[in-house]
Design a protein that fits this description.
13 helices, globular
């Protein structure tokens, strides 16, 4: 078996184990939440304590440290080689700046997609869970913890797990378009939540595109962080009446369907245009990690067999099952 085939299988095993462990964590966390439902502790801080106890270990240990150790020891790579394998390369400065602009727009695109998807789910009888509960008075500690848990850690850890080694081996075996499609599906299913699967799949496609075009995972980290940070910020701004962003959700509630639809369409067009601009500034791809004509990548272009895909198939089955359960029980 070639080194590239070995890497493909190791990444598959890693993804499968992560999907199993995420499912187990979801089940355990659900029953702990049920057991703590009568707690006298403030609901917002109770939820934060829960996030610190489960989400942080899941992000750091399961999505970052575990794949890092698998790539290092199972593939016998150095620390530098692991990060290189996971897409940590220099990036065009203009691509970074464009990624920041995309990051400012993507949260509104995600909101539009989320609303559209929830409308479809409601038509099929799904009842969405309640909105995020915040402390009655603004707490800087709570806000900073929310940014850490919701924006910083996912931008680093989820990108490492999804647009890191997984994207590298997918691109080795498949065309750029097919790789983007596969990573989009993987990112949507990875969340194992029926309300998130649609917009996260679209976001996953965009992030995969940026990584492949720039040859670096950094644009995806930036956009992912900004997408989640803006969401956290707007929730607090709306709750506490901040001058900047405090009236955003009131505007949404009072706007007509045509206004909202037109605004979302403009955001989509702007993101699309900026993504094309990234492609333009990175048109010289001689140093692009994903397109180098190395012997390893040449070998990786063999069509994977069923036994090579067995762990990927297992991960798909696990995540589809978990996602369907969230639909059935309204989780």
């Amino acid at each position: 078996m070639t080194d590239s085939k070995k890497q493909y299988r190791i990444v598959g095993l890693t993804v499968f184990i992560i999907s199993i462990m995420l499912l187990i964590l979801r089940i355990v966390s659900y029953y702990i939440q049920v057991a703590m439902i009568d707690s006298t502790m403030d609901e917002a801080w109770l939820n934060m304590l829960f996030e610190l106890a489960f989400s942080v270990p899941a992000q750091v240990l399961l999505l970052f440290l575990f794949p890092f150790l698998m790539y290092k020891f199972a593939m016998k790579k150095t620390v530098k080689e692991v990060f290189a394998f996971s897409g940590y390369h220099k990036c065009n400065v203009f691509a970074i700046l464009l990624s920041i602009l995309i990051g400012l727009l993507v949260p509104f695109m995600s909101m539009g997609l989320s609303v559209f998807w929830q409308m479809i789910l409601i038509l099929f009888g799904y009842i969405p869970s309640g909105s995020t509960v915040l402390p009655s008075e603004f707490s800087r500690s709570y806000f900073l913890l929310s940014v850490l848990i919701t924006a910083i850690l996912p931008a680093i850890c989820e990108e490492f797990a999804n647009r890191g080694g997984l994207l590298t081996v997918m691109r080795g075996f498949h065309s750029e378009k097919k790789t983007i499609l596969l990573i989009a599906i993987a990112f949507g299913l990875f969340h194992q939540n029926i309300t998130q699967i649609f917009y996260t799949a679209i976001l996953g496609a965009l992030l995969a595109y940026l990584v492949l075009e720039t040859g670096s995972i950094l644009p995806a980290v930036i956009v992912h962080f900004m997408n989640n940070f803006v969401s956290v910020y707007l929730e607090s701004a709306s709750e506490y009446g901040w001058a900047i962003g405090g009236g955003f959700y009131d505007f949404i509630d009072g706007a007509s369907f045509g206004t909202i639809s037109g605004s979302i369409a403009l955001v989509f067009l702007a993101v699309f245009g900026l993504a094309l601009a990234v492609r333009a500034v990175c048109k010289n791809k001689k140093d692009n990690f994903y397109l180098k004509e190395s012997s390893a990548f040449a070998a990786m272009r063999q069509r994977p067999k069923f036994k090579d895909n067995i762990f990927y198939i297992g991960a798909i089955i696990v995540t589809i099952t978990s996602t369907f359960i969230t639909y059935l029980f309204g989780l």
